[in-house]
Amino acid sequence: MAELLNDYGTEIKQQAHGNNEELKRGSAFLKMAKSLNNVTDALYLLRPYDVMENTAYLEKTIRQAIPVLEDSPRSKPLEFLLSRILDTYTPLSASPEELKGHDPIPALRKEQQMIFWYYERDLWVQTISLTREWLISWIMVWFGEKEVLEKSRREGYEKNISLFVWPERKTEKTEWKDEDIDRLMPVEQFRKLWQNVTNSRNDIDHAGHRKDSRKSENLKQMIRNCVETIQELPFPTSLEEH
Fold first, then answer.
1. Cα separations in angstroms, 6 against 31, 38, 56, 66, 107
2. pTM score of the predicted model
3. From CA 148, how far away is CA 144, in angstroms rounded?
4. What's the rounded Cα separation, in Å, for the pair 124 and 178?
5. Terminal-to-terminal C-alpha distance of the chain
């Protein structure tokens, strides 16, 4: 879609012959094409916070362009395309306040929507990769953490999750008790979820270069099960609810 917008904008500008209105319309299409490219790049490269920010800017760009385009018969065929772009991507947008505030819960909810967005489009690698990182953030929020992107804090929670889920593999013991997790979801369900998320993500990352690699359909079913589980997970109403 971005390529179509770019080609259309380039053609309009080339045929404008100094007509300022046509030059504006061409520039509007080029600006939308660049904004859409930024969104799709962030989506495919798993940059969820960039997706939220870039999608908000894309929506703003399209809505600003509509008055410039609506008087042009040449732009009419693309009205449906612009409407489709808005319908497809704007559910993923987030305001600067949601992204830069001290409450990570709104962005966490938006990330969950992004997981479903990937899943609905059969983007399995992105689905499970984001699910794994989202689960760590989800746990952190329930434990009252504000800085869910802080590397050292994430590593600490990831370690505790691993110790809790696979206690038999570790010489260390987790500081968490069953009741810490049971208030969020059944303990065994949590263990199974993290095992499935981690195993399927790792299996994909190794790109079939192991003798015990799962078949594609088995991986897809594991990911489906994970998505269905996180769809039911509760959110705290505030960070104080931990």
1. 8, 13, 20, 16, 31
2. 0.90
3. 10
4. 31
5. 44
Residues 6+ apart with CB under 8 A from 88: none
**R_g of the chain, CA atoms, integer Å:** 22
192: exposed, middle or buried (C-beta count within 10 Å: 0-12, 13-18, 19+)? middle
Q: What is the token pair recorded at 41?
A: 């790049």
Would you list the DSSP string of the chain? -HHHHHHHHHHHHHT-TT-HHHHHHHHHHHHHHHHHHHHHHHHHTT-HHHHHHHHHHHHHHHHHHHHHHTT-GGGGGGHHHHHHHHHHHGGG---HHHHHSS--HHHHHHHHHHHHHHHHTT-HHHHHHHHHHHHHHHHHHHTT-S-TT-HHHHHHHHHHHHHHH-GGG-SS--S--HHHHHTTS-HHHHHHHHHHHHHHHHHHHTTT-STTPPPHHHHHHHHHHHHHHHTT----SSGGG-
Alpha carbon distances (Å) from 64 to 2, 68, 107 = 17, 8, 25
**Per mean pLDDT, which of 99-103, 130-134, 169-173 is the most reliable?**
130-134
Q: Tell me which residue has tokens 């790792």.
A: 202
pLDDT for 242 equals 58
Percent with pLDDT over 90 in the chain: 67
> Nearest Cα to 86, choosing from 66, 68, 62?
62
